[in-house]
Design a protein that fits this description.
213 residues; alpha+beta; ten-stranded antiparallel β-sheet; three-stranded antiparallel β-sheet; 3 helices
């Protein structure tokens, strides 16, 4: 089993040129659109919406921290003028045809997909993987249009980790817990949608259902 450096993925990506996504992504309904100049006010207004689910409020909170602040301020010293437009979508079709979703309302229910991410060799550090694959929950799907580089196609995610390095599997399925680690990954790095089910004996234990398909 391998080890993954999750915290470094976003900081390393923005310290060098991010390659353009080689496929034309098919996004579903656009939920929100705003520019860098009014991002903070726009998000704070949305977070006060009483109909907004707690997952979406967490999405916006982490968006400010990981997308707005990091991307903007990291690039501010390198460019005299930074124009960014953020498109937030409810879903996107992945490379194998599955639709990844992160939305407050889909057929009157909120849905935030669980996905498998194939890690690169240079991201190997402090994370136990399942045959080089890690598991995350998608909180937000965004396309960032900029005036100084190619668009970014990113997903804001919350990471799962194995509950134990000694007994990482139960019923031959990865036994996971949600962590407090959030960051951004490129959509093209996502393998596929997966089925993760909660264990009702514990509020923070989950099983990857490998027998669904």
């Amino acid at each position: 089993m391998k080890i993954i450096r999750r915290k470094a993925i976003i900081t390393e990506s923005f310290s060098k040129e991010i390659p353009k996504t080689p496929i034309a992504l098919k996004y579903s309904k656009k939920l929100y659109e705003f520019c860098i100049q009014n991002a903070e006010i726009y998000i704070q207004t949305r977070m006060n919406d009483p109909d907004l689910k707690k997952e979406m409020k967490l999405d916006f909170e982490k968006f400010l921290e990981y997308v707005y602040l990091e991307i903007y301020y990291q690039n501010l010293s390198e460019h005299e003028k930074i124009d960014m437009i953020f498109h937030i979508y409810g879903g996107v079709m992945l490379k194998f045809g599955s639709i990844m979703r992160a939305t407050n309302k889909f057929h009157k229910k909120s849905i935030f997909s669980n996905i498998a991410v194939e890690m690169n060799a240079d991201e190997i550090f402090e994370y136990t993987s399942d045959n080089d694959v890690c598991f995350v929950q998608v909180l937000l799907i965004t396309e960032i249009i900029m005036n100084y580089k190619e668009p970014m196609h990113l997903a804001l995610v919350q990471w799962y980790d194995f509950t134990s390095s000694v007994n990482p599997y139960l019923y031959e399925c990865p036994l996971l817990e949600k962590t407090n680690i959030f960051n951004l990954i490129e959509i093209e790095a996502i393998n596929d949608i997966i089925h993760i089910i909660p264990r009702f004996i514990d509020n923070n234990e989950f099983l990857v259902n490998k027998f669904l398909f």
